[in-house]
Amino acid sequence: MDASRETQSSALKTWLEKSNAGYEALIKDAQKNLKAIEHTYDKKLALHSSINYWQRKFWIHVGSAAVLAIGVIVAFYWAAKSIKESMHDLIGVAKLSEVEAWKVGQVLLIATISVWVIRILIRLLLSQIHLWNDAIERRTMILTYLAMLREKELPEESRDLILQALFRPAATGILRDDGIPPFMAEWLKRTTGND
User: Fold this and answer.
1) Which of 35, 52, 123, 135 would give a disulfide with 57, using CB separation of 3.0 to 4.6 Å?
2) Among 48, 54, 43, 49, which residue's Cα sits nearest to residue 139?
3) What angle do CA 104, 184, 173 make, to 5 degrees?
């Protein structure tokens, strides 16, 4: 009896030691996961306003792009209608050689202004599309950064690269020459003597 008791006692002791070791490993693993979740939650709280900011920026730029796209369509319609009406009113059915120079100049001025306005609207539209892509990219980078933090600790170099990409200045995509048509700018430079 004593031998079987000793065997059972020894087996029980071994089983308890294995169970305790398993529970301790499970508890350590749970604590590690909880600490990672807590760290990610803290980072998410710190970055939550950034995520909301870039989400808001995305929707603002989408709305602006939609309005500008409608504006471009309206401007094309207005330009075509204005040029057609001005040609009909000023020139009529006469031959080009019979038309007075000022009438041709007026039609060209209307066409130039129309093209200039359409060009500016298209550049603004492309700028809004560029900014909306930038906003959604930054939001995605922040969420990816949080997911990577959740899974494991990031190396210092990777974290620095991600943060540099997040905090880079945003380019608008608008070029400096959008003020006046190029030929008009050249003409003004030549007549005023300014370079």
Assistant:
1) 135
2) 54
3) 125
